[in-house]
Amino acid sequence: MILEVKAKPGTGADLVAFFRSILPATRAHDGCISVETLQNSDAADDVAVVEARESRGQYEKYLAWQRDRGTSAQLMERLAEPPSIRHFDVTDA
Hints:
- About 40% of the residues lie in helices and about 25% in strands.
- It has helices spanning about 10-30, 55-70, 70-75, and strands at about 1-5, 30-40, 45-55, 85.
- β2 and β3 form a beta hairpin.
- The protein is globular and about 35 Å long.
């Protein structure tokens, strides 16, 4: 899964700090294989989160858990526009 977000202007560092505060729980959540946060070198308000999970179903459960906790709403408050969420499957290439 790749989550791409654009922070409100000039707040990219604050957005990264927010992710730093919530991602330990994400990494500990059932089915999480890995999570990395990337910040655009040329546009610091652009941030991507690359996450690998054992299954899409586990991601959906995780997302519901974050919504129930209010974390999704906290993220949306920090964004200049709606996020992009894309799911990919690993290939044998």
